[in-house]
Amino acid sequence: MGELTIDTTLDGYAPSPAVIAAEMAVAGAVIQSRTALEEAAALLTPADFYTPAGVVFDAAIALLDDRRHIEPVAVLEKLQERGDLARVGGGPYLHTLIEHAATGNISYHARIIAGDAVRRRVHLACQRALHMTTSPAWDPEADLDQIRKELDQAAARTTGEPPTVVAEEMAALLDELENPPATMPGVVPPYRDLADLVPAFRPGELIVVGARPSIGKSTLGIDLVRSAAVHAGQRCLLVTLEMPARQVLQRITAAEAKVPLKSITDHTVTKEELDRIAEAGIRISQAPLVIDYAPGCTIARIRATLRSMSRTAPAELLVVDYLGLMTAPRAENRQQEVATLSRELKLIAGEFNLPVVALSQLNRGPEQRADKRPQMSDLRESGAVEQDADVVILLHREDAYDPESSRAGEVDLIVAKNRQGPTGTVTIANQLHYARFVDMAAPPLAGRPDLRTA
Length: 454
Description:
Blueprint: H1 17-30, H2 34-41, H3 53-65, H4 72-82, H5 85-88, H6 90-99, H7 106-133, H8 140-155, H9 166-178, H10 192-197, E1 206-211, H11 217-231, E2 236-240, H12 245-257, H13 261-265, H14 271-286, E3 289-293, H15 299-310, E4 317-321, H16 334-351, E5 356-361, H17 382-388, E6 391-396, E7 410-418, E8 424-431, E9 436-439, E10 444-445, E11 448-452
Parallel strand pairs: 1-5, 1-6, 2-3, 2-4, 4-5
Antiparallel strand pairs: 6-7, 7-8, 8-9, 10-11
Helix pairs in contact: 1-3, 1-6, 1-7, 2-3, 3-4, 7-8, 8-15, 11-12, 12-14, 16-17
């Protein structure tokens, strides 16, 4: 029998006899049977093993990848080719594995191995956490997020999702088209005409909203979370880097109660307005909205907040107001810093399975044009932002430049990029005294100016 060497690098950890037996049972089976190997490979990775059986398992998988016949001699040759034969104890160890091979029910033994692998990863994550918390270089924000991340990863399934079978996926798509879901996955935009172009901000997408200062990007961002949280009951996280939570709440209240924002901020509301605010306050209080006022916010803080929310109810929308005020990891220049932020926000959208809306300030390009209309290239440090974004929406208001414009009160939403659909421009109305944008009034019915279409 070959010598069984156990890794002792984890202080205070030792596998149980049942775990060692399960690892030997699986490794002994997979070096003799392609069927057993394929079943085990769908449930385990070599890293899940604690004993040298994992090295043998890895060699067997390599044979599978090479489309070679699965048998003990071939596994031995692969181990020798890799320089691992002596490491596992030579041929006698393979003979020992064969003697202890599982005769069936690979999944039973795999569950024992996988369960212990989780315990081992958690143990290691806790060891790292202990090291981080005792280090003089402790960073409460970044290190705490890293600890949470490692613990989450320790408990996660590591073999990944099975590969997509096109026939199965096509059948699911046809079924979805024949029986459409009652609600659109993701977050539906709050404006009717915009929803015609972009039916929903989907999980995994990065949506960038760009505008010059004082055009209304914060108003649009708050409209999004107000519509999703207050009206649709979707859990939202609004990260605001320049507007305290009380100011955000004042804007949401003004929009919901149809009370002038100035009356709320000046504390001059009438009795009737106060009644409307109280009624709206009930809806707002019940909304699953989290507001994080975080000047200089970092990606680590956003991840930590989302991870904390996930422990009770995951967020369904993240809005960041705004990208230019975020603190990025140091780089050679601001363009590289913004590129890192943009890429990380896109990764967050996929990691937490939610749409991420990042508000962004445009450069002075629009002011140098006769029509003042923004273009996607006006996004500050735009290259990476344009590339990472699934949807880019630019805001334009003629009355911001010409108060006497015939289009006063109108806001153009220019959908400059839409990875999943058409681009175009839609027009909505601004009610900035109520701190909100709304749909344009529908045109009157022909011959009946007193009636309007729904």
